[in-house]
């Protein structure tokens, strides 16, 4: 064997090299797809674990909120009758819920309001331009 760096593949004809090209391209695409699948599977697993941890944290938060409400009732019970303490905490919770609902309704209304310069208007202008109606850049 010689160490002159001779590679028999380097002496192949142009037609042979061009005939090998589709196979090499398909091998490259196949390898890239496999790499993408492996990366996607890894990321999907991490997202799934993260989502599960968020769900568990939310469940614990709900229980903590219940304990906090009980604590408020107990604190008010130190100064007031139990029924009045419970009624006050209930009124506070209902007032908080009402405020949050009003804020949510306003946000939804703001999000669904028509935007004169938005995507819908842009699409309408594009359709008009395609039809040749209205003003548009040439």
Low-confidence stretches: none
Terminal-residue CA separation? 69 Å
Average pLDDT score: 83
Number of helices: 3
What oligomerization state is this entry in? Answer: single chain
Number of strands: 0
Classify the helix fraction into a percent range: over 70%
Main beta sheet: strand number and arrangement?
none
Envelope shape: elongated
Structural class: mainly alpha
User: What is the alpha-carbon Rg in Å?
Assistant: 34 Å
Order of helices and strands: HHH
The overall number of domains is 1
Estimate the strand proportion.
under 5%
What can you see in these coordinates?
By secondary structure, this protein is mostly helical. It has one domain. The protein has three helices and no strands. It has helices spanning about 15-75, 80-110, 120-130. The radius of gyration is 34 Å and the shape is elongated. The chain starts with 13 loop residues before the first helix and ends in a 7-residue tail after the last helix. The mean pLDDT is about 85.
List descriptors.
138 residues, mainly alpha, 78% helix, elongated
Concise structural overview:
By secondary structure, this protein is mainly alpha-helical. The protein is built from three helices and no strands.
Write the topology of this structure:
Layout: H1 14-77, H2 82-112, H3 119-131
Helix pairs in contact: 1-2
